[in-house]
Amino acid sequence: MISSELVFVQLSQFDGFVGVVELAMMLEASVSQVRKLLQDLGDLVESNDRDEWRVIRNITPERILSASERAERDRLEQTVEQSFFVLGSALKILRDKRLYRETHSSFKDYVRDRFDFTRAAAYYLINASEVVENLRCQQFVDTNKSTILPTKESQCRELGGYPPEIQRQAWKRAVELAGGNKVPSARLVKRAVREITQTEDSEPKLFSETKRSLAPSFREVNYQPGMGVEYTVKLDEETYNRLQRYQDKIKSATKCGAIARLLDAIVESE
Questions:
Q1: Interatomic CA distance for residues 156 and 252, integer angstroms
Q2: pLDDT tens across 65-75, in order?
Q3: Are 98 and 127 in contact (CB under 8 A)?
């Protein structure tokens, strides 16, 4: 089993760039393993667009981390990367259980006074945590053989509001656009969402293959607020089920009544 230290020592024997394939042959290791270890070396090495690598010569040996230091760094970096998910999950529980009600009448006032968050910022974090939970679905992870997950709220923002299957397909596509082995940027996620959700006239194969399987996940609610006024609201399955739970919780006779209660609560909190 080779280590990043061994890769660094081998690479430092050369003055210029060395191809990752050639380096892998020298170390008798797989190309993917060597590339991963090179990436772990961070700013000790650099690469060009031909996947060739070299040591940055102004780096002193004292800067090389030990195995325990690298493990500690990786653990702390992961904590920082997932901080938005932890925040969003906590805010979601505070909101859903109304744990703010002892001091505040609205969630908007609570997050502003307690955390100095705007209502929009709080909901961005909540939505992002829901997206990550969906992407962490065991079935999705097993199918894609990948544990690459968002590391920033902005990467989740473009996925929010779409059904779970669309979120997963778009994230998978974004990872592919990023090269398949690293977290995609928010820009690539936006591009992937656009590809997946294009209109039928110009939809790519990737979206057309999944659209039929998504159709049953949508439910309809007929909204009749008054005499002579009627229209249909189309909800994805997850949102429909959440509305059903809310209706049961407040013991509303209809979903229209449940929606009205939600709208009243929003108006009161503004």
A1: 33
A2: 778 888 888 88
A3: no
